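Title: Prediction job returns without error message
Component: structure pipeline
Severity: low
Priority: P3
Assignee: unassigned

Description:
Job completed but the reporter wants confirmation the result is attached to the right record. Sequence as submitted:
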Amino acid sequence: MENSPRLVVLDAATFGDAALEPFEQWPCAIYPLSPSESVAGRLLGHAAAVINKVVLDEAILRDPAAKDLKLIAVAATGTDNVDLDAARSLGIGVCNVPGYATQSVAQFTMALILELASHAGGYVKLVREDAWERSPVFTLLDYSCVELTTKTLGIIGYGNIGKAVASMARGLG
């Protein structure tokens, strides 16, 4: 294992409750967070870096400490925190996780749609303030409620998340 490519995880604290034990089958270093001034140094001697929020710009990728880097794995859907042109010119592969969080993001989208339609959060606040009990008609009519039955949902972008939102919306209809 001594000659195996080394792996570095630069911001493990951003992975939530993801299990990191599988990484331990390879020689690796796992950092909870990596301040920008420490990133280049932490790449030293590593062939692969797993990141989420850490920025790997051209200056970091061209730093002599990153000379062994062959792969950047972004533990998210995007790659906007990596200078893709610099990585390409240096022969560093970049990959991401396109299906990451699809269901949870779609579910949160549905929650926001329902919040906009029913104002549940506003009503929760009023109930906590005892507004219901103080109402002379013992009801709250502070927010209008939009019935979704007759509405059409427009989805801009029909990738993994857009398709999951559409599927959830069909399931509610």
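Comment from assignee: result matches the submitted record. DSSP finds seven helices and five strands in the chain.
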